[in-house]
Fold this sequence. Notes:
Chain A is built from 35 helices and 23 strands. A 9-stranded mixed sheet of chain B has the order 7-1-2-8-9-10-11-12-13, covered by helices on one side. In chain B, strands 3-6 form a two-stranded antiparallel sheet. Chain B has a two-stranded antiparallel ribbon with strand order 4-5. The interface between A and B is large, with 42 and 41 residues.
Amino acid sequence: MSKTLADILQEKGIPISFEYGGKSPDEMVSREIQKEPTPRAKKMRDLYFDTLSSATVEFPYWYTRKYEELEHEIPVVRRAEALKCAFSHLTPTIWPGELLVMGKTRYYRGSFPLPWLSEGYFMAREDELYQSALAKGGASADEVTKWGAGGGNVTEDFGNVVSIAGKFGIRNEEVPALLRLARSWVGKSVDDLSNKYERLVPEYEIKENIMRSVICMFDSGYTLPQGREVTNYYYPLQYGFGGIIDIAKEKIDEVAGEADGDGIIGMDRLYFYQAVITVLEGIQNWILNYAKEARRLAGLTDDAAQKKEYEDIAERLEWISTNPPRTFREALQLTYTTHIAILNEDAISGLSPGRLGQVLYPFWEQDMEAGRITEAETLELLECHRVKFTCIDCFASAGVVGGVLSGNTFNNLSMGGLTKDGQPATNGLEMLILEAAMTCETPQPTLSVLYDDKLPEDFLLKAVECNKTGTGYPAWMNFRGGVEFIHDQYQDEGMTLEEARAWAIGGCLETSPGAWHELTLNGKKYSIPGGAGQPTSVGVHFISNPKVLECVLFNGHDHRTGIQVYPKHNKKLETYEELWEVYKEYYELTVDALCKCNNIQHDIWRKQNMGVFHSMLKPDCLDKGHHIGNLGYRYNATYNVESCGTANMVNSLAALKKLVYDEEKYTLDEMKEAILANFGFKTAEEIGSYSLGLQEKKAGGEEFDEIHSDCLMAPKHGNADPYVDAILKDYEDWFCKMCRDYYSLYARPLYACQISVSTHGPQGASTLATPDGRLAGTTFADASMSAYPGTDRNGPYALFSSATCWDHSQSQNSQMNLKVHPSAIKGLEGSRKLLDLTRSYMRNGGFHIQYNIVDSKVLKDAQKHPENYRDLLVRVAGFTQYWVELGKHIQDEVISRTEYEAI
Amino acid sequence: MEETGLIFDIQGHSVHDGPGSRTLVFLSGCPLRCEWCSNPEGMELRQRIRFREKNCVTLKQDCTRCADACPYNAITFNRDNEIPLEIDRQLCRNCDSLDCAKACLKEALIISGKKMTVTELMTILNRDRQFWGPEGGVSFTGGEPLFQKRFIIQVLQKCCEAYLHTVIETSAYVETEHFLKAMSMIEFAFIDLKHMDPEKHKEKTGVSNKLIHKNIKALANSNWPGRLIIRMPIIENFNDSEENILATASFLKEVGLDEINILPFHRLGDSKWTQLGLTYPYRDYKEPPAEKMEYIQQLFLDQNLACYNGYRTPF
C-alpha cells in the first residue's frame, strides 16, 4: 500500500503539526476564499445590485413645512418639532423577505437632500443659485472629482429621472418641489448663514483662495457636520424609547427654572429635555408606521411563512417602539432603527456602530442559552444586516460624496480590543460577524480589528481568512496605540486608562473615544462599550501637502487657477532649512484660516442645527441636560487637521534636498522650470489616465529627461533610507505638535489625522508635477504611510521600517495600504504569515494596515469590462467599495499600488 | 578585518524558503553552471550589466547616453533592429565604474550586484528581524552562498551573535572543511541533488557530484543538530527517470536522511539570461506536468521518504 506523507512524518517523528496535505489548489490567481450568502440574503443583495441611488423630498418637505410654521420657537425645540413631523410622515416600505426592516426613505437605496445645511449645490443645473454655488470656492472640488459611472450611481438623466449631485436620481416631478424647498432656505441654511459671518474673519480671503486652488478639499460645518464617530446604543437597549421619555420627563421636573449655577446655558436644559421627548415621539410614530405596514402586508399574503414573518416584524417593531429589547432579534432591529434615525437627523458619513458584537452580545448569549436562536439563524440575520447597511446612502455635494467618500458611508464596525479590565473582548458573536462578512460580501458595514497581542489566535486567523476574500476588510488597527492616543488626547476631560479601552473606529479609521456602560439583562450585568465623543474629521479638512509645497516654490502662486493664494514670501529659498521654514509658515497660515472659518460654520450648526436625537444617545447629554453644542458629550476635543499626499511631499522634499541643496546638481529655478513643463510630458487630462505609469511624453519633451530621471531616482519613502526617513520624522514631529496650537469652537486643541480617503485623486488632479518626479494631475500616493506606487523597492519590511520611524500615537491615525497578490498567502501557512506580517507592523508601532488581496490583472480587466464585475469589491483607503462605483482616479491608483508577491 | 561581499538581491518577506517569514539574501558567485539556472546574474563573482530592452528609448528619443559613457566602446547601435542597442560582451569589461548604467535615465541598463560590508548586511537583517514574526530569520541563497568564503563565515558568526535563525540553500560544492564550519552556524539547510550519475551531473552543471555527496555524508555523520532537506529540481529528460529517483532515494537512506523537496523546473529566469546578453539553454523547456510531479513524489513516498512537492515543504 502506498504511504502518505502524513504517515511518514509521524513515523519519522518529524515535529510538524499542521494541516499539510495539498488541500489548497495550485494556481490561485483569483481570490482564495469565496463563500455564498444564504438564499434570503442573496436575494436582498441582488435587489441592491439592481437598484439605483434614489433621492426623494419627502423628509425635507415635512421638515421644512413644520420648521417654517415655528418661527417663534427656540432653535432646539423648533428643530425637534420639524424632525418629529418629518419622521412621522415618512412612507414605510417593507420588501418581501426582509428580516430587518426600515430605511432612510421609502426607496431601497434612498436618501434625501438636507437644504437646511446647504441648499445651493443640488439646485437645478440651470438655476442661478447653482451658478452662484459654482462660483464659490467650496464648489471647486466638484469640478475635479471624477465619479465612478457604474453600479448604482445615477450620473446622467434618463427617462423620468433627473441626476442630482452627480450620483442620485430623483423623479422629475419632485424637482420643482426640491427647488421650492431649496429656495426657502436661501440665506438661512448653515452654509449661507455661516458664510455671512465667515467673511468677517480677516483670513477669509486666504481661505477662499485655499478652497479655489483645492489646497483644502472641503468646508466642514455644513457638508457632513457629524460622523467619523462611534454612536452609542446603550440608552435604547437599556431603557427603550419609552423609558428615555420617562427619564426626560423626570429631568424636566428637576431642572425647569433652575440655572445650575451657570447663568448662561443652565436654563437650556429644560428646552433640551423637551426636545428629546418631541423627537422620540416622532421616531416612535415612524417605527409604528412600519409596524402598521407589516400588518397590512400580512393581511395581503396567502403565503403562511411570509405572513408569519410580517407578523413577527410588526410585533418586534411595536415592542421596541417603547420598550427595551428582550431578544437578539429585537436588539438588532433596535440598533439598526436607531442608526437610521441618526442618519436622517443630519448629513452624516462615517457613523460607526462601534463594537457592535460586544454591544449585542448579552442578548445573543442569553438567546443561545435559552435556545431562542441558532448560529445559522444568527448568520442569516447578520447577512441581512450587511445588506441593510449597504443600502445606506449619504447625500451631500458631488465633491464631498464622490471626491472624498467614493460614495461610501463608512459605517465601520469594530471588533476585538480589550475589555474594561484589560482582557480580550472578542466573543462568539464577533466570529459570526466575520463569517457573515465572508458569506455575504458587501461594502457595509466595513470591519476593523482592534489588534492586541492578547486576542485569541483563532479570531485573528479568521480575520485573516476574511481578508483573503479580497474585500479588504477587516482593516487592522493597533489597539494599544489607540489607547495611548485616546488617553493622551482626552485626559484633560477626565479620560482614564479603563475608559480609553472603550475606543473604537469611527468612519474609516478615526480613533474615537468611548465609554463603558453597565447593561442589565434579566438580572445579569454586562459592561458594554459605546461612543462618548463628538464627531471627528471635523475642523480642517484634507490639506494637500504637495500643493502647499508647490505654493512655497512659486512664491504663493497657484499656476492652475492663476490665483495668488498666499502672501508672497519673496525668499530665495537658498537653503533647505529656509524652504522648510516657509513650508511650515504657509501650512500654519492654512490651518489658521481654515480653523477660524470652520469654527464659525460649526458654531452656526450647533446653534441652528444641533443633533437632538443623536445628542441624547451619547453620554452624558441625557444626564447633563445638554446637547452636543452645549458640550453635553463627555469628550469634546475631537476636531482635527487632515492631511493628504504625505508620501509625495516627503519624497519631494528629499529630492529637493538632494538635487538642489546637497549636491547642487540643479538650481531651484531649473527645478521649477521642469515642474512647469511637467518634465516634458502631456497632461493627465489629455491622455485620460491619472496613473504615473501611463503618462505620455510630449514631442520634444526630452530636454527634461535627465532632471526627471534624477527626480525619480532620488531617495524615496518606504525603503528604510535614513535620508528620507529623517524628513518624514521631522515632518511628523512638527505636524502632530503644530495641530495642537489651534483650537476648535469648543476651545479644545486640534490634533493630526492622517488618512487620504479618496482625496488623493482630486487633490492630485489639481497639483502640478512635483519634485519627486510625479507628473501633473496624477493621483498622489494613497493613505499616509503607503509608499508612492512603484517606489518601494525593498519589500514590505523596509516599508514598515520607514513607516514606523515616528511615534504614531501622536496622531489620531496613520494609514498603510498594501496590495498583496493572492498567490503570496495561499493556504493556512499563508494566513499565518499574513498574520505575522500584520502583527509585526503593529508591534513596531504602526497604527493601521489594510490589504487589497487581488491580482492586478483582474482589476485591469474590470476597468475594461465593468459589466462583468458588478460585485467585485476592493479596498481603497479605509473602506471597501464596489469597483464599478469608484472614480477613475482611484481605480488607476489602486491598480498601480505596489503588489507584494513572495516567490 | 571586516569582509565585503557581493550581493545581487535581498528580498524581504519571503515565505517559501524556510520557516516563518524571512529575508532572503542572494550572494554572487557559483562554481556550478547549471543550464537551467534561474539566477544567472549570480553565477559570477562580479557586478554585471543587465539590459532591459523594454525601457530603452534609443529608437524613440535617439538616446546614446550609455554608448557615450562607455570607455571601451562596447555599446553600439544598429538602427535597423527593433532593439538597436547592442552590448559587445567581449569588449565590455564589467568595469568598476559602470558609467553606462549611471548614464541611463530609464533604468534600461542596470547594475546587478552590490558590494556590502558585513556590517551593512547585518544592519538590514537587524532591521528586518523586527518584522519577521516568531519563526522567521535569514535565508542565504545565490549563486552559491558559500562561495564567498570569508564573507559568509563572518556574516554567519554575526548572525549567531545576534541570535538570528539561519537557513542556507546550497549546492554543497565547496571544500569540506569550509562547508562544515559554515554549517555549524546554520540551523536549517536545503542541499540540492541534481543527478546521481556523476557524468550526467557534470554534463549539465559543469561539475561532478562527488564532492557534494562527500559533504552531505560528512554533515550527516557529524553531530550537526540542524534540519536538512534535500532539494531536487525536476527537469524532464534529465533527472526524472525512475532509475535516478530510486538512486536518489537510496542515497538518502544510506546517509540517513528523511526529507526531500522536489521542485518543478520553471522558466522565470529566462529574461535575465537575455538581459545579460546570454542565451538561455532551457528557453524551450516546459515545466513538468503536475501528474509527473505527483508520480515522483509517490515514488519517494513509497521509499519511505518524506517528499514535499513544490512550495509545500512543512516548516
